[in-house]
Model the fold of this input.
Amino acid sequence: MASVVITGVGSYAPNKILTNSDLSKIVDTTDQWICERTGIKERHIAGDDEACSDLAIKAAIAALADANVKPGEIDLLIVATCSGDMPLPSTACLVQHRLGIPAHATSFDIAAACSGFLYAMEIAYGQILTNRYKCALIIGAEKLSALTDWTDRTTCVLFGDGAGAAVLRKVDQSGIGIIGSDLGADGQFVDKLCVPAGGSRKPASAQTVADRAHFIRMNGREVFKSAVRVMDQVAREMLEQHHLTADQIDLVIPHQANRRIIESLSQSLKIPLDRFYINLDRYGNTSAASIPIALAEARRFGRIKPGQITLLIAFGAGLTYGSALIRW
Ligand code: UT7
Done:
C-alpha cells in the first residue's frame, strides 16, 4: 500500500511589519482592542513591487530545498489564492515559468479563500495516489493588503501578506502522510465575506472605485459564529472517520483568523491550547497562506516529530471549509 507524504515545507513573509500601534495612526483603533478581540499584534505587508507570485515563489523555493526536489521534477503545481497577480492568467502560470517548472506540468490556481491550501492538498493527494502525477508543489499565497480597505477599521486590522508551500509525493509505505482529507462549501453565506466588484457581476467602473467595492467586505460577527461552529464540526467528523480521540492529536494547525475562534475550538474539542499552533499574533490572517505558513514554522520550530499526528482545520469565504490529518 502506498501513501502520499509531505516531503518539504517552506514559507515567506515580506520584510515590512505593520504593528497595531501603526494601524492606530491610520484608523480609529487601539492596540488593546485588536489584541483583545483578535490576538493579532502585527502583520507583514508586501512592498509595492511585490505581488502574490513573488511571495509564492519565495515560499516555493524554500519548500523545494527542504524536500530536496528540483523544479524540473514537479508535474503538478497548484496555487491557492484570492489575491493573484492578475484576474488572468493564473498566478500558477507565473510561478511555473519563473521557477523553471516544466511546461508539461499541470499548473492552475484554486479559489477557495482561507481553505484554499487544504483544497490544493486534497487534489494533489488524490492525483498522486492514483498515479496521475508524481510530484506536486502546492502553495498558499496572498497579498491581502491589496484587497484591504485601509479606511475600514473592522477589516483592515485583520489581514496580512505571506506565502507557504509544500511538496507532495508518493511513498511505498502505508498509513503515513495524508491519512484523511475532507472539504466542503456552503454558498448561502457568500455575501458575509466577499470583494463585491472587479468580477463579471460588477466590472470595474468609476462607480465601483468610488464605492470602495474592490476591497474585502465582511460581516465579522456572522463569520465568527460560522467559523466556531463549522471548524468544530469538521474536526469532530475527521476524528470520528479515522477512529481517533482528541488526545491522540499531537498538534492542531487551524486557520489563523482570530485567537478567540481558536480558543473556542480548543475548549469544544477538549484539546489543550498548547497543542494548537498559533502564530496569528505575528502574521494576522493571511487567508490561503495561513495554514502552510504555520505548518512550515511548526516544522522549523520542532513542533512536529516523526510518528506524530497533525490535524489541519480551515475555514473561509464562500463559506468554504476543510480538514486534513497527517501522520509524519
Ligand atoms: O479568514 C476568514 C474568516 N474570518 C474570520 O474568521 C473573522 C471572524 N470575525 C472576527 O474575527 C471578529 O468578528 C472581528 C475581529 C472582525 C470583530 O470582533 P467582534 O468582537 O465580533 O466585534 P464587533 O464586530 O461585534 O464590534 C464590536 C465593537 C463595535 O462597536 P459598537 O457597535 O459596539 O460601538 C465595532 O464598531 O467594536 C468596534 N470595532 C472596533 N473598535 C476598535 C470594530 N472594529 C474595531 C477596531 N477597533 N478595529
